[in-house]
Amino acid sequence: MRLHTFRLWSPPTGQRGLRPELETSFWLWSVTILGILALLAMDFVFVSRKPHDVKFREALLWSIFYIGIAVAFGIALIVWQGSAIGSEYFAAYLVEKSLSVDNLFVFIIILTQFAVPYALHQRVLLFGVVLALVLRGIFIAIGAAALEAFAFTFVIFGAVLIWTGVQLARHRNEDPDPMDSLIVRTVRKRIPYTDKFEGTKLFIRQNGVRLATPLLIVMISIGATDLLFALDSIPATFGVTQEPYLVFAANAFALMGLRALYFLLKGLLDKLIYLSTGLAVILVFIGVKLVLTWASGIWPDVPHISTNQSLIFIALVLVVVAIGSWIKVRRDPTAVGHAGTVTEHRHPDA
How many domains does the chain have? Predict the structure, then answer.
């Protein structure tokens, strides 16, 4: 049984025939999803079942493990489908991995603002990863269907990314406020809650009244953050590959290592001074690439940005961000990086 293979755009004349179309089957999707579920189950059973303080060595080993799986998957794609498909996967994975670092910034802000006990960080992050995978899967299906039906969706996605990149550049020295979320503000107004954490409990009974613990508010904040990041990251990934399977795989492997990456980098994230600026540049670049992709399918003379060019550009931006941040911190040890935001802050009760 073979699933329908998406052909999301008609490449310009000069681009046709550069690589074969990726063929996916029901069994390939099934094995991939089952493998990801097995990794999640392993993460829960062996790592997050018993909340504990994660040391640097443990975080490093798990980070190497998940990055190794992602790289091995990419190499298998190259052997199986060729270097062009493999390059698209690695470009998508690099985009998602870089965006996930910004996601970690926001997770740290949420966990700090709500004073979540350190031993519960793993549980919260695992919930965030699972929810993010579900939301990304939904958005990938919607995005793939929209791109298949309407080629102009490329322009819409491109405009969203360009706007997001410009806004992120404008507010690069700010941090998002979890209380800005309409969902969080609504829950806090509608559901009685206590200010005390009760282990991993989301609700408790106190004097006969059912109260939500702060952990529920934290989970909702993480969920709202995942939703916003999915709205940006899925169009960005479709900007470097139009294969739904590669988009899903790149998102899944980037997210799977998010929890370990958090404990590995949490003391270094605020030293990535220019991360938000670099991500803004990458988002605008991919947005422009999407618009050119649509235009080049109609007018063959319009330039088309190849996957290899995208991969090189994104890698160079990330290298410049790392080196520039290192130089800035050496010159000014008090400098602190920010996650950046795309909207103005508002009072939580507004």
Answer: 1
